[in-house]
Specification:
- The longest helix has 27 residues.
- Helix 1 runs antiparallel to helix 2.
- The chain has three helices and no strands.
- It has one domain.
- It is mainly α and 89 residues long.
Length: 89
C-alpha cells in the first residue's frame, strides 16, 4: 500500500469518526456526555484537517476554487431562502 492510499484511508476514517462524534454530541442526554463528545469531535476535526492539509500539499487532494459569480449566486439564493423563512414564506 502506498503513502497516498494510506492517507486516503486515514482521511476517510477520520471523517467517519467525526460523524460519529457529531451524532453523539447531538443525541447525548446530559451536559457532561455532550461536552465529552464535543471535545472529541473538535479534536477529530483538527486531526482530519491536518490529514487534509498534508494530502493537499502533496497534490493528493486537489481542489478548485469556485468562480466568484457562482459563490455570489449561491449566497443570494440562501439569503433569499432565509428571508422567506423569516417572513413565514
Amino acid at each position: 500500500m502506498d503513502d497516498k492510499t494510506i492517507m486516503e484511508n486515514l482521511l476517510q476514517t477520520s471523517k467517519g469518526i467525526c460523524d460519529l462524534y457529531l451524532h453523539g454530541t447531538i443525541e447525548s442526554a446530559t451536559a457532561g456526555v455532550t461536552q465529552t463528545f464535543n471535545k472529541n469531535l473538535n479534536e477529530s476535526l483538527c486531526m482530519q484537517g491536518e490529514i487534509y492539509q498534508k494530502m493537499s500539499a502533496k497534490g493528493w487532494y486537489p481542489t478548485q476554487e469556485a468562480p466568484a459569480q457562482q459563490i455570489q449566486q449561491t449566497k443570494n439564493k440562501f439569503d433569499a431562502q432565509a428571508q422567506q423563512g423569516q417572513q413565514g414564506g
